[in-house]
Amino acid sequence: MIAIDSLSLLQRILLSTDGTVTDLIALYAGEDVHVTKVRQELQVCEPPAMLACQGPVQMLRRQILLSGQDRHYLYADSQFIFERFSPSIQRQLLETDQPIGLMWKQERLETCREIIEQAVVQCPVIAPHFELPDDAWFVARTYLIHHGGAPLGAISEKWPLAWFS
Fold first, then answer.
1. Mean pLDDT of the chain
2. What residue ranges do the domains of the chain occupy?
């Protein structure tokens, strides 16, 4: 097991920030960072209990990579209650590859992030995106996004332990 307190300062900042990681990664990398969609689907289903929503609702599941010119920096898997977004953000989520944090910033949407999990884990499913072996270690966090007293969704982010050290 790898202890969180043994991570680099930047890795610990990325784990604990309540701001958008896109800006931090772009600043660190010295290049523009863009979204590469891996998978996205909109479906009616039961939301996870942590999203505090009753019954089947439209859920958007979005899996993306934050990418630079020559490499991927971070993988994110998000689940959102679609109807809790404005029509503008709904449209952008479906039609663009913009980072969601930028959408919220442009709309001046006041949000609060509640970090619910931090860990260092192996993740063979996403390792190929980073050209790493299946047993590579990843720094991971999951957080809820709240707006207007209710969760909009949950985002799980992972990046290779070797990055940002």
1. 89
2. 4-160
